[in-house]
Design brief:
alpha+beta; elongated; single chain; about 220 residues
Length: about 220
């Protein structure tokens, strides 16, 4: 049955306007993006099928445009819409982080890093650069690796910090395995980066390990 034949208070768009976006399921939110379904499937049904295929909302949004376009009813246009929605959310979070002291309110940076890195299929090492007031001035994905490791070069990290005149930095990398637990290699790398950046008076405030279920902070663990 097409959504237009549903009771008005059950249609995703009307439901959102009446009760707010928090009242909608992931599939219903996707249906608003998709607008229409395919033969035999409403937009909500198509949303559910996408979530099942890509395992989660994050997995769907992290999927490549080519993989999304393979799904009947998606195509290039809807794939672009989904990618645009994700980028809007990322930019809103980093904009929020730029307006406040990151040390006194770290949630925005943590949420941004989880959104940016959690569902990547390969390891990515990123840096959030901050000014002397601990406000975000730049985010950069510095290195990309394989399913299990990324090569990180302290010299390139130092060059990035100096290029943006950063006073401090927060590092993050994802574990595609899903386990947000720092490895011994992660600890050794963080120590090496602290030493390299210390020589140019740039402080390392934290290092987040991003997994499927959350983010582990080196600072909160007492590892810095």
């Amino acid at each position: 049955m097409p959504i237009s034949d549903w009771p008005e208070d059950e249609r995703p768009r009307e439901k959102l306007l009446a009760r707010g976006p928090g009242s909608l399921s992931d599939a219903e939110l996707l249906a608003i993006f998709l607008r229409v379904g395919v033969r035999g499937m409403s937009a909500v049904d198509l949303g559910r099928a996408l979530l099942e295929r890509f395992r989660s909302l994050g997995g769907l949004l992290a999927a490549s445009a080519d993989r999304l376009a393979e799904v009947p009813g998606i195509g290039v246009a809807k794939s672009a819409q989904l990618k645009a929605g994700l980028e809007i959310a990322r930019r809103a979070l980093i904009e929020q982080a730029r307006t406040q002291d990151t040390l006194s309110s770290p949630e925005a940076v943590r949420d941004y890093l989880r959104l940016a890195l959690r569902d990547r299929e390969h390891e990515v090492f990123a840096a959030v650069l901050l000014d002397a007031q601990n406000r975000v001035i730049h985010y950069e994905e510095l290195f990309r690796g394989t399913l299990t490791q990324t090569s990180v070069y302290p010299r390139e990290v130092v060059k990035c910090a100096l290029r943006h005149n950063a006073a401090a930095v927060i590092f993050a990398h994802n574990h595609p395995s899903g386990v947000a637990e720092p490895s011994q290699a992660d600890r050794l790398l963080t120590d090496a980066l602290r030493q390299a950046l210390g020589m140019v008076d740039v402080r390392v405030l934290d290092h987040f390990v991003i997994g499927a279920a959350g983010a582990t902070s080196f600072a909160e663990r007492g590892l810095l």
